[in-house]
Write a structure and sequence with these properties.
Blueprint: H1 6-11, E1 14-24, E2 33-38, H2 40-43, E3 45-50, H3 58-61, E4 65-69, E5 75-77, E6 80-82, E7 85-86, E8 88-90, E9 96-98
Antiparallel strand pairs: 1-2, 1-4, 2-3, 4-7, 5-6, 8-9
Length: 112
């Protein structure tokens, strides 16, 4: 893995948000869930699609805080426009486990 500079790291804008709505995404090629995430007054609500069905249901995601990259360009995934990249780590079976603050933080708080 190539080393990056601190400025490279600062260019990635990772923020805390809270899932306000989630629903199945049956049109996706791989099982996924559509999520709407509130990033506070500065960024507002953004949407994303995430392949997190191994560990989460749409109902279980609503209300939980997540971390996401908010400064990638939007990406069309089938009929859905994904505006942010929710962060997670693969478990031993390849299921995605979401990265989240372990205490409640302000919406839109930037990781540093």
């Amino acid at each position: 893995m190539a080393e990056i500079t601190f400025d490279d790291f600062l260019a990635v804008d990772i923020r805390a948000g809270q899932v306000t709505r989630a629903e199945p995404f049956p049109e996706a090629r791989k099982p996924a869930i559509k999520m709407w995430i509130d990033f506070g007054p500065e960024l507002g609500e953004k949407k994303t699609s995430a392949q997190v069905t191994a560990h989460y249901t749409p109902e279980a995601l609503v209300g939980r805080q997540v971390m996401a990259v908010v400064n990638f360009p939007a990406r069309q995934i089938g009929p859905f426009m994904s505006e942010v990249l929710v962060l997670g780590v693969s478990d031993e079976q390849g299921g995605i486990v979401l990265i989240a603050p372990d205490k409640e933080v302000p919406l839109g708080g930037r990781m540093h």
